[in-house]
Design goal:
Strand content: 5-15%
Radius of gyration: 18 Å
Number of strands: 5
Distance between the termini: 26 Å
Largest sheet: 5 strands, parallel
Helix content: 40-55%
Shape: globular
Length: 221
């Protein structure tokens, strides 16, 4: 794992105010649970998944672009996005190009909204939860990268149970993401995700929190 804050100078030249920790990991690895521990320490959380839902609300330009490309069958009767229908289209076997197109249609809108929310944050540093940080090459958006790591079999089990989907679809969804070893190699910090109680991970989060406070202070000097 890297021990440097490799993106700090780049962010300073762009005029960014907040020290940004990119929280990432594979699907169903427990990122939200880890983020909640930082939130309990009064740290602002910017969730890219929540932002992604915002930019496809009815009336948003992004939703129109997606509908124009994939068709009205991805909409519910009330005009909202049918996420399950869209997911089945882009994660079907052999549909890699469809997923790439969806990501391309949403990327700019998501990035702009994330930047807005970070600039509004008032904590010493900000946790920016970006599941596809590496897949979308968004490393330059953050100063440091925290990866939540999980064993494959546990990840698969969680995803199937969480989304009530088939094993085949779950495997396809996992396979479309950066592999586990790549995430570990690119991480500045690592938290292991398992079935132990969440409070067992609080000590690890507290150690990281204290380190991030120091780094954030240095960043602003």
């Amino acid at each position: 794992m890297s021990s440097t804050v490799s993106n700090s100078d780049n962010l300073k030249t762009e005029g960014k105010k907040a020290f940004r920790i990119g929280l990432t990991g594979g699907i169903a690895c427990g990122k939200s649970a880890i983020a909640s521990l930082f939130e309990s320490l009064d740290i602002c959380i910017v969730d890219a998944d929540a932002v992604a839902r915002e930019v496809v609300e009815p009336g948003q330009v992004c939703l129109k672009k997606i509908t124009d490309h994939f068709g009205c069958e991805i909409l519910n009767s009330d005009g909202t996005l049918n996420r399950r229908a869209l997911r089945e289209i882009v994660f079907a076997t052999g549909a890699e190009l469809k997923l790439e197109k969806l990501n391309a249609l949403m990327k700019d809108a998501i990035r702009e909204k994330i930047d807005e929310k970070i600039d509004e944050a008032d904590s010493p540093y900000v946790i920016v939860m970006i599941p596809l940080l590496f897949e979308h090459h968004l490393e330059s958006m953050v100063n440091r990268i925290l990866v939540v790591d999980i064993e494959y079999e546990l990840q698969l089990k969680r995803l199937i149970n969480r989304d009530n989907i088939s094993k085949e679809l779950a495997e396809n969804m996992i396979s479309r993401q950066v592999d586990r070893n790549t995430r570990i190699q690119k991480a500045d910090d690592l938290i292991k995700s398992d079935d132990s109680p969440l409070d067992k991970k609080l000590n690890v989060v507290l150690k990281l929190h204290n380190e991030y406070l120091k780094l954030a202070k240095e960043f602003k000097q």
